[in-house]
Amino acid sequence: MRKKRIVDSGKNNLLIKGRGIPKGCQICLKGAKTVLFLNGLCQNPDHCYWYCPISEERKNKSLMFANEIQITTKEEILDEIYNTDALGMSITGGDPLFPPNIESTLEIIRFIKLKMGKKFHIHLYSNGINFDENLAVNLANAGLDEIRFNPSRNNWNVIRLALKKGMKVGAEVPLIPQDKYLNDIEHLILFLDKIGADFINLNEFEYSESNCIHLKNRGFELKKETIASVKNSKEMAYELIKRISPKVSIKIHFCTSITKDYWQLSKRYYRRAKKIQKSYESISLEGLLIYSQIEGPLDDLNELKEELLKMTNLKPKYFEIDNSVLKLPVNTALNDEIIQLVNSKGLKCYIQEITPFREEKYKQITEKTPINVFREELGLNEDRKSQDQ
Q1: Looking at the domain assignment, is residue 93 inside a domain?
Q2: How far apart are the C-alpha atoms of 52 and 42, rounded to whole Å?
Q3: Does residue 216 fall inside a structural domain?
Q4: Cα 133 to Cα 123, 161, 224, distances in angstroms
Q5: Share of the chain above pLDDT 90, in %
Q6: What is the pLDDT of residues 195-220, one digit of tens each?
Q7: Do residues 324 and 295 make contact, with C-beta atoms less than 8 angstroms apart?
Q8: Does 304 lie in the same domain as 254?
């Protein structure tokens, strides 16, 4: 059979040319997916408990999150969908189909479909332990578009029960770089193709704070110059896809840690930043908000604000005083005359970069750079020296 070309989509993931990837993944790579972590409750099955990457904060706990935001109601899920301008949602955990979670899962799917419309895409992850045909029908009737299984080898047959119900059906498993697991994945791919499933997603195997001891004890090593990727996971994925792709017609997609961190998180940040951006803020490629801030006594800041309004002819919306800090656009603060004025008043000026949240609980300062250091990084101090000479 003719060899199939394995390509990098440009987003650090691997796929087979001409076959594409699942709709949920397409939305994810745009940063347009809301991730609903229903809760950390599941059966803790033997085949996956040891590498589960869920944090201790969430594992086996009844806490719900939409992206990074802790929530308690389905209405708050809707708020987060709007805040990130999302085109779809994934439901994960724990296991959304763990029996105590099933009714909540179905209720949320119905509610989001009602509010967002049929085109809004929803997919769900499950270990399949409690899956049966009745549940498959209920999920399809609720509006679920796509289901992704990570079952134990002796439970693969549950995947058949989801077929021909109106949902896209596949599996999503980590590429564990050991022969035993590679052999299982290869047979899983052949099984999925035989029964007519739509896809399999392979994820780069990752270290996390909660699984690191298990992984270390089993001999897994970190890839050099990474903080999470397990050595040889991507390389073995490539060889596996190369070897098996001519034998099957199913979609096969390998998703790296970089793909998740950059294309899922930063692109979602960018969408959120666009929604909440203030006039004095700009947005970085990573989706972070950037602005200048001048610190000092409130009276001095109010006086400076009035002077800057006259000097720049900018509208008041480009300046905001908040907690003894005057916030303004970066380009404005880089002006030589304004720097001299700020210095003459004994005030401090910084360029600040933050995650795109207004709530103090979630907002993080990722960088805070003194204005002179920032100018030096841009080479502006050298330009100024040459002009003075």
Answers
A1: yes
A2: 11
A3: yes
A4: 18, 5, 45
A5: 88
A6: 999 999 999 999 999 999 999 999 99
A7: yes
A8: no
Rounded to 5 degrees, what are φ and ψ at 81? -60, -45
- CA–CA dist 86, 175 (Å, integer): 28
pLDDT of 334-366, one tens digit each? 999 999 999 999 999 999 999 999 999 999 999
60 touches 236 (CB < 8 A) = no
Q: Which of 226, 251, 272 is a domain's end point?
A: 272
pTM attached to this predicted model: 0.90
Domain count, the chain: 2
Report d(CA 61, CA 75) in Å as an integer: 21
Q: Which domain holds residue 13?
A: 6-272
Helices (H), 297-379: 298-312, 330-333, 336-344, 371-378
One domain, residues 186 and 48: yes
Structure tokens at 289: 């908000």
Are 266 and 207 in contact by the 8 Å Cβ rule? The answer is no
Residues 324 and 236 in one domain: no
Which H or E element spans position 170?
A: strand 168-175
For position 69, which CATH number holds? 3.20.20.70
Cβ–Cβ under 8 Å, residues 93 and 48: no
198 and 345 in a single domain? The answer is no
**Exposure of 37 by Cβ count < 10 A (0-12 exposed, 13-18 middle, 19+ buried)?**
buried
Q: Are residues 281 and 265 in the same domain?
A: no
Condensed to tens digits (0 to 9), the pLDDT of residues 175-189 reads 999 999 999 999 999
**Whether residue 56 is found in the same domain as residue 193:** yes
Specify whether 197 is located in the same domain as 331: no
Please give the angle made by the CA atoms of 288, 210 and 50, to the nearest 5 degrees. Answer: 130
Segment holding 121, helix H or strand E: strand 121-126
Cα–Cα distance, 34 to 121 (Å, whole number): 10
d(CA 252, CA 245): 8
Distances (CA, A) of 54 to 6, 14, 21, 60: 31, 25, 25, 9
End-of-domain residue from the set 214, 248, 272: 272
